[in-house]
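Practice set, problem 2.
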Amino acid sequence: MTTLYHEIEVMTSPDRVWSLLTTRAGLNRWWPGEISIHGGDSWRFQHEDHDVTLVFRVVEEVPDKVLEWLCVQGEDDFHNTLVHWRIGRKEAGLSLIAEHRDLRKSAEQLARLNTQWGIWMERLRDQLQQEIDTLDDEDLNAWT
């Protein structure tokens, strides 16, 4: 099994990062498709270019620090993978780390997914550099 690792550095507050990872409005700003709440503790991700729907259940949540999503529905090689997010302090700003763990894909598939994660992280960085307030989203911390 493989883990993909991506890190960006941003000049913003932890709550702005958190809102892009824990609200439907925030997720829709960087995910290329539709996001909806699935059950009381999961996100349903529909990619705009793929027919496959992914459902990620929130399995760990330490506000403004750590978030983990477990894939509970989707492609076989995504099922039971874990996306681990960490928000850390840097001398100037914050780091946002995303690790997609336990992947069971071929080398070619991993290369494509690694590129896709790079694009998503850049979209996150772009959103964090904009002055858009996502804290008014009704889904904020919907299951906490």
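Problem 2, part (b): a different protein.
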Amino acid sequence: MFLLGVIGSILLVGCSTGKGNDDIDLIGNFEETQKIEIILSDDSEIITTISDDKDIENFVDALKMDDWDPVEIPTEAIKGKTFKIYRKDAAKLSWSAKQKDKLKEVATMTTYEDVPYIKFNLKKFSFSFEVPAEVHEYLNSLEM
């Protein structure tokens, strides 16, 4: 639960280290997500995109993040899908209107085929979790 609290804090509060440093950025929270791309982990082909506000809300609800437990993923686990999470860049005074509307990848989440684990990456931070069986089934069923 501690790691989930850390992720939640990073997502909710975020931070900005100033000009020229993209290692840590204003992350925002899942409610600010504009797009989620679902990609087969062994391929770079996008199999679907979730961009409707209601669909994103349903996706976040289905994750049941309060029920995630930190684990170490076995080295033999086979990667399933990768979920790339995007939101609008934080506004900066010097940006043009076009740059303000550009979406930026803020996190990725990778599932595993035969174990209910996920790896969640936020910039240079990486967390591994065991998720409830129904969350694992939901994530692996998404292909729309």
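Answer key, part (b): Strands lie at 33-40, 46-50, 69-70, 79-88, 103-112, 117-122, 125-130. The CA atoms of residues 107 and 122 lie 5 Å apart.
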